[in-house]
Specification:
Length: 341
């Protein structure tokens, strides 16, 4: 009986692949590069200036671009890699990864570059592409449909409803955390508020477990440069990711992977090179997710006394597709100030 069910599922998937492939181009190439010693905030204005003159190119959200040349379709997205910039490329045409329009662009700007060797970054970019392509925004590139999309969408709506009107996204109280962060820092920015003499450093990290598909970890460091104590009265964000967001989204994703595993079919076809590995049990993987995410899912602080010439640290999770800023309300010598980063 089990073999029969597997056979039926396999035939259904093959039929789906065949039908979808007739409507869109099958992915043939996907590459990733790292531009060395060039921060993304320096690279994107240059890219915009060049691609804005190309009528075939459409700029998408969050530093992504989509182009159609004849029968060929091209997706390209730029990512911060701290002091460097990563570029991820997907196409349904044969593409020489060492000699193409992208590498020619690098050379024209005298950028030093290399093929991306960061496997964790590569996997993240592949997933981002597949997830975005499934939204229908890239109708020229064929990707395997997400069979559990209604369930994930329902979970997301439920979590949004539960969080609506709440200033905090977690019931875990805020606590000072001064331990080192053993994660890859993908971006860092520093801001200075002249009214309060506070420096705000924002570090963005790639998580190690499955929740990284949906969220990144953020570290806010507030340094009081003045000689006066400051009370951080309120820290607020429209929507941060809470532990419930992480666990429900990740659980659905793990369930989807286990279904694929049970079918025993190579679903990496038409997923932009996304690989499927099944070596750790669901409950173990979910435990790893919860353990890692909990550290960054505490409530935001209130009425915190930031002493003169001292610092405080806030850890949080933000949705990669919609990273909301954080607003600070502080009181310095009886005067209230607000700033948002």
């Amino acid at each position: 009986m089990k073999k029969v069910l597997k056979g039926v599922c396999l035939l259904s998937i093959l039929a789906l692949l065949s039908t979808s492939a007739n409507a869109a181009g099958m992915i043939k190439d996907y590459h990733a590069y790292r531009i060395k010693n060039q921060n993304i905030r320096n690279v994107i204005p240059v890219v915009d200036g060049i691609l804005s003159k190309e009528v075939e190119v459409k700029k998408l959200e969050r530093n992504a671009y989509y182009a159609t040349y004849g029968d060929g379709h091209y997706y390209m997205k730029f990512y911060p890699a701290l002091h460097d910039t990563d570029v991820y490329l997907v196409t349904d045409e044969e593409y020489d990864k060492d000699n193409n329009d992208v590498t020619e662009f690098f050379k024209s700007q005298n950028y030093k570059y290399e093929t991306l060797e960061d496997n964790e970054a590569y996997k993240e970019y592949k997933f981002d592409f597949v997830d975005f392509a499934r939204s229908g925004a890239l109708d020229g590139l064929f990707t395997l449909p997400d069979g559990l999309k209604p369930l994930k969408k329902g979970m997301s709506k439920l979590n949004d409803k539960m969080s609506k009107g709440n200033d905090k996204t977690s019931t875990i109280p805020y606590s000072e955390d001064n331990d080192p962060i053993d994660l890859t820092c993908v971006d860092s920015q520093e801001f200075y508020n002249t009214d309060t003499d506070i420096t705000v450093t924002i570090n963005e990290y790639r998580l190690k477990n499955k929740e990284n598909k949906y969220v990144h970890a953020f570290e806010y460091i507030l340094k009081n440069n003045s000689h006066s104590d400051i009370k951080v009265e309120k820290v607020y964000s429209e929507r941060l990711a809470g532990l419930k967001d992480v666990t429900t989204s990740t659980f659905v994703d793990l369930d989807r992977l286990d279904v694929a595993d049970n079918l025993a079919v190579p679903l990496a076809v038409a997923t932009g090179g996304l690989s499927f590995g099944f070596t750790i049990a669901n409950n173990v993987r979910l435990g790893m997710v919860i353990k890692e995410a909990t550290r960054f899912a505490h409530s935001l602080p209130e009425n915190y006394d930031l002493k003169a010439r001292s610092s405080m640290r806030i850890l949080c999770l933000k949705f990669k597709e919609d990273p909301q800023p954080i607003q600070f309300t502080v009181n310095k010598q009886g005067q209230t100030y607000q700033f948002t980063y």
